[in-house]
Amino acid sequence: MKKIIATFLLAGLGLTSCGDFLEQLPESNRTSAAFYQTRADFYNALVGAYNGLKRRGVYGNGSGALMVLQEMVSDNTTFTNTRQPVNSSTFEIDDLLFAKSNTLVQAAWTDLYAGIGRVNPIIQRLPGAAFAQADKDRFEGEARFLRALYYFHLVQLFGDVQLVTDPVDDPYGANDLPRSSREDVYALVIDDLTRAAGLLPAAIPAAESGRASQWAANALLGKVYLAMGRPDLALPVLKDVNDNSGRQLMANFAQVFAPTTTFAANTEVIFAVQYKSGLLPQGANAAGTQGDVERTQGSDMWSNWAPAGSGSLLGQNGGGGGGFNTPTPDLINAFEPGDARKEATLLTSFLSGSTVIPAPYAVKFRQQGAVNNDADVDFPVLRFADVVLMYAEALNETGQPEAALTQLNRTRTRAKLPALAGLDQAALRLAIEQERRVELAFENHRWPDLVRTGRYLPVMSAKGYPVKPFHNLYPVPQRETDLNGELSQNPEY
What we know:
Elements (H helix, E strand, L loop, with lengths): L1 H13 L17 H4 L3 H13 L13 H8 L4 E2 L9 H7 L8 H23 L7 H26 L23 H18 L14 H14 L3 H14 L24 E5 L27 H4 L21 E2 L1 H6 L7 H4 E7 L2 E8 L16 E5 H14 L3 H14 L10 H15 L6 H7 L3 H7 L15 H6 L10
Antiparallel strand pairs: 1-3, 2-6, 4-5
């Protein structure tokens, strides 16, 4: 527990750089208890909790841990940069070597707990704060949504994890914690999301883009129930989001991700990690901030996912080309002929003058002319197409294949593909799996989807990947088990 507690404490201390409260008490004397007083204090703490999503171990831009641990570990993408020590952890995952010392696995554990460490004090101390109850309710809903999201990623990646719900103020005064069961973690996640849905607003105004809504909580709750193997519980929740959220599929798939699509005009994204270019710290440069968790508010996905060595040839101002999340031939071939999503998702070549350079790369989050590592395109954590396909899955798994087909065909129709018909439950399972793959490519769904349906081992093995049965979970990082003798390790590690 020593490592986790230190992470929590550092996360809390990081918040003391926010707001105008510094005028009231020197930072060196300001305790966490003194910080959580006013509405502004709690709002600033929430900003820090949201910003934790951009840490390297969470969404962390194009080379963040979840991009590698949930997408590159699958048959969707690979890493095509030069092998060197600086990116050896990425190649380990790409090669399906799940090392206990892998720095991305460590970053995921550390930064997801850091996010939890930012929301626990908010949840605990809100009841004693003296400001409007409506604001307190909303802040609590947002904090619970974020805690649920952080814990959901932890339980997906590691299974049983340490369950910490109280603020950790003293790294030397707490006992080491063992891992809690997945069932207990899921119980907390469900409770947090259920409460959050009752506290959060149904609509988010443009001035508050990026904040969680009631429908974000319910969409995530439906996803959690599916991950637990409970489509019966997921069904009414996803039906509610589908029928009543007011969200809908945008007519043009590419516009969902276009930097020109405003928050107000985007009817499909339910919750996204927000990026804003042009906010580099004084004295910093975009090229020098890659992987730095919170020094810039811009995204590096477009430049980092471009072909290695492509420089400025793809409309990146200042160069770029990290070779991350390179689409595999298998993913490229997964798109049916005529699928309108394909060219809005990936391309297979680019021009150097008049020379065609064959090199596949993702274009889902491109922004022509953006400064290298400093783009505006947001990353969707939850979007309505995902809800539609989860709803289809829940319908199919509860014995309603015809209704499930109706939902599945909504995304196919948008993609200019013919509707499917006459599929039984088993065939429809595979059709939904295929549709989720091409619809949600590069959005960190492929590995979790295959794991929760028990398909990771057969799918990857059939394609020649050296996957092992225990790869449905990552190892608890070596540093954590070294520091805490109460932490057990996942089987076979």
